[in-house]
């Protein structure tokens, strides 16, 4: 491409409404153009960045084994009513009616549509696991659209949905996606962290967000410098209903048990007659080479007959709901979580069957309290004499005892183990290996493709403009002719331009009839990673090569130029 022909209109100043640096620079550098609040066009330079991010995402998703699909933005309300989200999603869901007064939503996410496809097309476990993804426009009527592409009302997301018949398979794909996301964000040149997260309106239990640490981020991330603990503050501060006077909670004991224990062993250990319901809940340490099991015993006046341990075999724990109409009794759950979290790290309640029931059970008035079930205990700070406290900067890391630090983060990706939330509501079943109908287990995995553009700039800029990470730069190299009237400069620049193009280097030629200083300023503002300048040194068969990030300049023989660029 030649800048003389390109649609690039740069500005010295950004409009007043642009608050953060990425928004200002994207407007000044002619990347995007606002149409309405939270709605933007991508101009040629911005569009190239977007496509490069998309390609990285697509390549890594394909590599992971996921299959690309393309689903409709326009979605019938009936599907959303089936999942319960027509109401639950609230005003962020863009709604409309067609000419026959039929209701529709503009997709903010696609769990309903994809579940509908799979329930109709997939009937057997043999076709699973399967992960379907798309890169597509999403609509969310954000209450505060702002910061340009960072929080749009129309934006580009990569969303993926996986389907499984077993939990192990879901766990496996979750890890596969986690690694895939790490590869994607690394290739995009981002400095990021995977943090434990809140699942919001999507629902689900196990979930991580990928945060780009930057001042303009809208989330607070608590992280530990000594270990890899990191959590969204939203999650780290979830509060339970604990009262200081909660004697039952205080009297809970934690006992490490061998994983070969049977129900009888458990009962004997706690001195409980086997004829009675076992007053214990088994926890499995969720990581480490040797699985450890923990037994939390309630020694209160609780008549704990809501849950009984039915079976305990190797890694799996089976719990049976005895009286699931008696919700009150489930209060015992809050009884053991705190103290366990105090002494141990990353312990997970592993109760496959009962989770279904427990998930619908709210421990406290706050929806976030759902996380007390089937999530990592290390997130919760419990103090035996009081409430679960907010994890704060400067405290004890709940995992290793190190010191917690706080940073602002931009959420660029989010992965969830949804379990059966949607498949159950929408009756998505397949025949399992035993020929029985099994409810599908699902995972979902999102990336803010357009938000990555903003996040990359928030981390890579200086007083002169953007410093694009090379893999997502609109062009990798800007060949600048300082003086267009100088025929030798033009000839050498044209040769270099052709040479780089021949070697598949993404290059643009600044052949505009403008002052050299103006061209350099534009190059810095737009953020091309490398400038090649055909200045005085061409007399010696050399050109100037300038690195945008370091500012280093080298005089390079044209013959060896490719070594520099590649
Ligand atoms: P946020 O907390 O920023 O509102 P979210 O948690 O609502 O995001 P998800 O439902 O997890 O978003 O969607 C997956 C990804 O889509 C997010 O990780 C984010 O990168 C991106 N995203 C979400 N909302 C927007 C938006 N309004 N504009 C641009 N990207 C967005
Ligand atoms: Mg949101
Ligand atoms: Mg979020
Ligand atoms: Mg999210």
The overall pLDDT, averaged over residues, is 77
Fraction in beta strands? 25-35%
- State the secondary-structure class: alpha+beta
| Broad shape | elongated
Total DSSP E strands = 31
Oligomer: single chain
Helical stretch count?
A: 16
Overview of the structural elements:
It comes from Sebaldella termitidis (strain ATCC 33386 / NCTC 11300). Homodimer. It is found in: Cytoplasm. This is Proline--tRNA ligase. One of its GO terms (molecular function) is proline-tRNA ligase activity. It is a single chain. This protein is α+β, with helices and mostly antiparallel strands and 566 residues long. It has 16 helices and 31 strands. The strands form 9 sheets. Strands 3, 7, 8, 9, 10, 11, 12, 21 and 24 form a 9-stranded mixed β-sheet that branches. Strands 28-27-29-30-31 form a 5-stranded mixed β-sheet, sandwiched between helices. A hairpin with a 5-residue loop joins strand 5 and strand 6. The longest helix is centred in the N-terminal third of the chain and has 21 residues, at 44-64. The site of one magnesium ion has 4 residues, from strand 21.
